[in-house]
Amino acid sequence: MSGIVCRAASIALTGLQGTTVMVESAISQQLPGIAIIGLPDASLAEAKLRVRTATSQAGMPLSDRFITVNLAPASLPKHGSGFDLAIALAALAASRHLPATGLADVAHLGELALDGALRRPAGLLSSVAAARNLGFLRAMVPESCAAEAALVPGIEVIAVPDLASAVAWYRGERGRGRAVRPETPTTASAEAGTHDARADIADVVGQPEAVEAMVIAAAGRHHVSLLGPPGAGKTLLATRLPTLLPELGDDAALEASSIASLGGSPLLQLVRRPPFESPHHTASAASIIGGGQGIEIRPGAITRACHGVLFLDEAPEFPRTVLDALRQPLETGRIEIHRSRIRTVLPARVQLVLAANPCPCGNAGSPDTAVSCACTPRTRMSYRQRISGPLADRIDLRLTLHRVSKVLLDDPHEQRVTSSQLRERVVRARAIAAERWSGTGWTVNAEVPGSWLRSQRLRLPRADTAVLDHALARGALTLRGYDRVLRVAWTVSDLAGADRPRRMEVAQALVLRGGDLA
């Protein structure tokens, strides 16, 4: 029996990036045993015990000789229990329990129980999507999570409940394995995000200007900062922003669902509602940006919020290093994680919302002398400077809120609009922007480089940008800020249904950024 080398395919995930792993199994004339080589982690190295016990329980004991299992490429660190199925099938093929042909053409994903049953591995949806991108036409997965795997279009899913059924499928007994037809993403029903599905922008009272600013932010996917005393409605506005966002498109929904699948919970449908992440200010840099120990990379809050909203409440209380780590991903829409033996890139296309009090006590600027601020000017300045200038320069809309008075609270004539009504405006504005940027790879105004907005084709007349040019000339704006004001102006124009921004839209965008018209 020595000399037989059998190969079965599986997928190794590094973040969301997949690599084909060929599981090679060979038998040599030595004492019984199994060795797994190819840089496995502890949980993967333990697969030899799970495989030997599971194959015995399934009535297919492995060879009584030494079995060497190699995970190629050997230079790639590998982790997790998702390789169990591929290891077991390669070892059984080497032991002559099933034909070796075809094992390398199917991506095998599944964790083995000791009785031979198959369990869902972490990141199943991400692995199936990676297998499709790597050219696989079939993926074999546990039957319990076949519906999740079938959310990925363009790949046939073979669902098997246990190891014996997987072996029977390769022996030609197709009744023991069930082929699941891939779902198109549009047929999956919408999945509510992590925010409260009952939340509505109509809950916001007495802040019509702030609500309109959030509509602008939603239409262009612009970053927002909210400054105001406690009780002014900062958190309420931030948590209602996801209710204004349209449902995710097919590609974005699959990417958001793949990220969600890394958390370990099975998915029954694609994530259609934009995700919402609100980490506590005691969160570490690794929990926000992403990282992990050893060779396993775990996405942080900025990746889990991809295509949605990342809300940092009490932003000045976050460590300065955590806030400044957001600067690069906010520009590029991705986060690069480097470790000594591994490197990966995670998506980070988020809409950032920062909320802060005007001072540590929260009463700075209050007109009520009974609750006047007790902080010294130096304390207030130090508190505000915890958000660095480079990070603040990446914020498009800077809103200052005030507490709602009782008169406004009791106003019976105030017109309140619902999230669904405002979402219709956002959808129309995004459709206009998407048509304008069709063929460029950009879909919302926040993604468009400033060089395009200042190009000959899209450059606005100097009469319309005079106030913006003046702010840049006197140093009130950086060139990055100039471009961001232009993006907001285009969004305001899209909401109004105009063909391009005029002087009024440019001035409004500058004021929303916290600038002045002097």
How many angstroms separate the termini? 87 Å
Q: With helices defined by DSSP (H or I, 4 residues minimum), what is the helix count?
A: 21
Radius of gyration: 28 Å
Fraction of helical residues? 25-40%
Average pLDDT: 89
Instruction: Kindly report the spatial arrangement of strands forming the biggest sheet.
Output: 12-15-18-11-19
Give me the secondary-structure category. alpha/beta
What is the quaternary state of this protein? single chain
Strand residue percentage: 15-25%
Query: Largest sheet, described in full?
Result: 5 strands, parallel
Low-confidence stretches: 183-193
Q: What shape does the CA trace take?
A: elongated
Q: Say how many strands there are.
A: 19
Keywords:
17% strand; 518 residues; 5-stranded parallel beta sheet; 35% helix; alpha/beta; single chain
Can you offer a commentary on this structure?
- The protein has helices at residues 42-45, 47-57, 84-94, 124-133, 146-149, 163-170, 208-220, 234-244, 250-261, 285-289, 301-304, 320-324, 327-332, 377-384, 389-392, 406-409, 419-436, 450-453, 462-473, 479-496, 503-512, and strands at residues 5-14, 17-28, 33-37, 66-72, 106-108, 111-112, 118-119, 138-142, 156-160, 178-180, 224-227, 276-277, 290-291, 298-299, 309-312, 334-338, 343-347, 351-356, 397-400.
- With 518 residues, the chain is of the alpha/beta class.
- The strands form six sheets. Strands 12-15-18-11-19 form a five-stranded parallel β-sheet. Strands 1-2-4-3 form a four-stranded mixed β-sheet.
- It starts with a strand and ends in a 6-residue tail after the last helix.
- The model is unreliable at 183-193 (pLDDT under 50).
